[in-house]
Amino acid sequence: MKLPVWDQSQSEAAWLVLWAFAACVRGGFVEPPPSFSLRSLTEAETRLPCQFQVQEDEQVVQVSWIKELPDGTKEHIITVHRTEGHTEFGRYSGRVRFESSRPMVNSALLILITEESDEGKYICHISTFPYGNFERKLSLTVWTFPISSLDPVVLEEGQSFRVAASCRSVARPPPRLTWDTDLPGQAQNRSSESGAVSTHFSLHPLRSMNGMRLDCLVWHPALEQPRRISNRLVVQFPPDASVTGFDGNWYMGLKGVELRCESGGNPKPKNFTWTRDGKALPDGLTVDGERLLFGRALRQNDTGVYECVVNNGVGTRKVEYNITVTETSRSVQGMIVDTLVMIIIGLAAGVLVIIMIIMIILVNRYQRRKNSKLEMELSKRMLEINTLSRQASSRRLNSVSTDPRGQNEDYILLRLDGRMKNSLMSLEDHPIYKGSQSTLGGRWGTVGKGDLDHLGRPVLYQSSWRECRESMRGAEMEGEREERRRRVESYLKSSNMSLDSGLPSSLVPMKPQDQDGSVGPTDIPPMLSDLGGQREGVTEGEDWGHRQDMLEVDEADCDTSSY
Q1: Other beta carbons within 10 Å of 69
Q2: What is the mean pLDDT of residues 323-341?
Q3: Does residue 550 sit in the same domain as residue 404?
Q4: Domain edge (last residue) among 390, 417, 435
Q5: What are the start and end residues of every segment in region (Disordered) (predicted)?
Q6: Is 112 helix (H, G, I), strand (E, B) or coil?
Q7: How far is CA 561 from each of CA 373, 399, 448, 469, rounded to the nearest angstrom?
Q8: Which range marks the domain in which residue 301 is found?
Q9: pLDDT at 439
Q10: Rounded to an integer, what distance in angstroms lies between the CA atom of residue 195 and that of residue 224?
Q11: Does 25 reside within a domain?
């Protein structure tokens, strides 16, 4: 119960005036101040202040409290006399008393349980001797605590826009009502002259709104903070059913399995109906609310489509689930399958290894054959190159072409310098001619038939590798090169003739005849016949530069050089 609420501003001002008056004037009311008013609440205790200060030669004889009614009449509440005691009147009997045990000194009155009808104006009447009677008036305002209520409305999903909850409150002064919610809606407030206030909250009900907050707040001056009336919106909707409990591994002989019909909806459904393939359940199966219990071991004929029908009063839902009972457990089947898979993988791996080994062997053999073939081809090519080199050397020595572009003067001089020197000197030292059977070898003598080619030309023999090396080493020496150069130039200038004019006629090969009887080009090399004339047009420095460059021939030329 809340204590009476006083008007603080008026109380403070009144007390200041009271104490100032008491300090300056002896005798009179100490409290309440003039035109004093206060507030109180129903069912609370209310104190009506009254205290009179007498003079030295004055005393209080009687104290009375009187209520002034709206029509102007007066109603006695309580009276106390110095000698006769106190008296309570009418409906106030047992509801009021003096605050102090000495009412002549402190005459404040207490209303133990304040009612709304206690609101009005009160008079504190003091009778003194010898100065007579004194009165002080005050007014009381009685406030009532708000009496509030909230009436929720049960809604269903799919309904039209309507009231979801109503909140009412009655108090003095009239309270103020508001809604605390996150719901999308609209509030409408109403009030009456009796102090009753009401408010209504309307919305479109949806399934997602079920259980959301919809609180009513009551605001009133008698309350330090608003009073909250908690409420949750109720929206009913049909259930959603689903069957659980089947893990896909039901086999014959399995025990203790069950199916569960999970369902939502509001309110929560309590009526469940189970069937199999649209017919009654087989023996050994029982229904316990939302559960379907298999009280025996599974059989092969337990396979089928199980149907669960759910009803919550708002709607009905039906769900079907296909159950398959196998002969053996899937774990055993999985082990068999895993074993087979491992065997297949092992076989495949073995086959791959064998195939790889075979491929490696075949590739190795192929590479060996290819290498052997390449070696044979390389040997054959080398042989052909050596043969062609020897033939090319013979053709260069016996060619009669006069095209200066076909012969290189420096190259001819190098050949003459390194290999023809001994041959030329032998020709001068041994003027013995053997006719067409003579050779240009290092020694003159009788040669066999195999020493001539098919044109009757002498065969050029290759020097040994050691002699070629010694010849190339000697060519690298500066003094040797200079000596050779002078000897060749001296010989060419002194001779000034071609091979066909200076050589003995027995050394000149016969000119072959063509099929028509004409004589073909001679096989005498033009390098000797044109050497004298060509050397005159070349300076000595340029000629020596060309021959010095050509002397840098690598040792590979020794394979194809001949005397």
Answers
A1: 10
A2: 78
A3: yes
A4: 390
A5: 494-563
A6: coil
A7: 30, 16, 22, 12
A8: 241-326
A9: 36
A10: 20
A11: yes
pLDDT for the residue 487: 77
Judge if 454 and 531 occupy the same domain.
Answer: yes
Which residue do the tokens 């009449």 mark?
Answer: 73
pLDDT in tens, 32-83: 998 899 999 988 999 999 999 998 888 999 999 999 998 989 999 999 998 8
Q: In this structure, how many other beta carbons lie within 10 angstroms of the beta carbon of residue 31? A: 22
Mean pLDDT value across residues 290-308 = 91
Buried b (16+ CB within 10 A) or exposed e, 315-334: bebebebebebbeeeeeeee
Instruction: Report which of residues 399 and 128 the model is more confident about.
Output: 128
Question: How many of the other CB atoms lie within 10 Å of CB of 232?
Answer: 12
Q: Name the band, by pLDDT with cuts 50, 70 and 90, for residue 214.
A: very high
Phi, psi (5° rounding) for residue 236? -90, 145
Give me 486's structure tokens.
């002078």
The reply to whether 408 and 545 lie within a common domain is yes
Specify the range with the lowest mean pLDDT, choosing from 135-149, 208-222, 262-276, 493-507.
Answer: 493-507
| CB-CB contact of 401 with 408 (8 Å) | no
In the three-class reduction of DSSP (H, G, I as helix; E, B as strand; rest coil), residue 283 is classed as coil
Whether residue 266 lies inside any domain: the answer is yes
Per-residue model confidence (pLDDT) at position 491: 63
φ/ψ of residue 482, rounded to 5 = -65, -40
Q: Which pair of structure tokens corresponds to residue 549?
A: 């460059």
Q: Looking at the structure, do residues 261 and 231 belong to the same domain, yes or no? A: no
| pLDDT band, residue 201 (cuts 50/70/90) | very high
| pLDDT value of position 259 | 93
Q: Are 65 and 124 in contact (CB under 8 A)?
A: yes
Residue 465, H or E segment: helix 465-475
Same domain, residue pair 419 and 374: no
Residue 434 CA to residue 159 CA, distance in Å, equals 141
397: confidence class by pLDDT, cuts 50, 70, 90: low
Give the confidence band of 402 by pLDDT, cuts at 50, 70, 90: very low
Residue 198 is encoded by which pair of tokens? 């009401």
Residues 404 and 544 in one domain: yes
Task: Tell me the C-alpha distance between 470 and 104, whole Å.
Answer: 165
Question: CA triplet 89, 93, 95: central angle to 5 degrees?
Answer: 130
The tokens for 255 are 């025990």
Domain stops at, among 390, 409, 432: 390
* Closest among 75, 78, 125 to 98, alpha carbons compared: 78
Measured between alpha carbons, how far is 346 from 355 in angstroms, rounded to an integer? Answer: 14
| Block residue for tokens 């047009």 | 537
Number of domains in the chain: 5
